[in-house]
Amino acid sequence: MKDNIYIEYNFEITPKEPATEILIAELGFTGFESFVENENGVTAYIQKTDWYSTILDDVFVLKSNEFSIKYNLEEVAQTNWNEEWEKNFTPIQVDDLVSIRAPFHKNPGLKYDIVIEPKMSFGTGHHETTHMMIQHLLKLELENKKVLDMGCGTGILAIFAEMKKANPIDAIDIDNWCYENSIENVERNNCKNITVLEGDSSILINKKYDIIIANINRNILLMDMKIYTDCLNDKGILLLSGFYEQDIPIINAEVSKYDLKLESFIERNNWVALKYNKL
What we know:
Helix content: 25-40%
CATH architecture of the largest domain: 3-Layer(aba) Sandwich
Number of helices: 7
Oligomer: single chain
């Protein structure tokens, strides 16, 4: 670990849903590493070395008139994150075809069974964006397709792509904890065709893919869009998520500069996942 001191935020949320899920997602993209839901809202943790005083300035749900969100913060020592996570992580299913569970959960016997131990990484499948990306991937023919999972978090989408016979697959995240956790989860699911890399979009130069998955926040997507599209093969597919329905026009305007056309999108609690085809 970088440091054994964390900043703990206690958020009191009214009404709890869907504000709690939205807040957790936004905090995850900002750098918060662990979340524990409770009857009043959620407690979130970030390493002190990664914290800065204006870290919540771009968390849009805190500015929403639809919810009341109050919070306080304090320094705390490192705790047993896995124990806290195990208390709160429940298995989920996507379209009765994909199960996402921890090693200690029973296998429900669906077509695809993904075993994830996220520790402090973002991407358990519980959040709308990951859920919708899996729905998009369910509809695609992935056999022998070269796939990129950008901002891979736990590696869940790369793992699912291999289960659908994609090969080869790159899974990339800038966060060291996500990088290490993805390697663990790739091994846990006996994947053989996934290469996990630590870094940002700069390591994509001269790489080419048939399908690119990018479940990242809106600002990073907009900044890196040209790199993603340059890496996409002719007639390739770009899957984007990590933003709200009202962000579609600005995302679409940027993507359309690079000869990609919006084919379809999925919406879930105001979060969206978009599918683009390269012309």
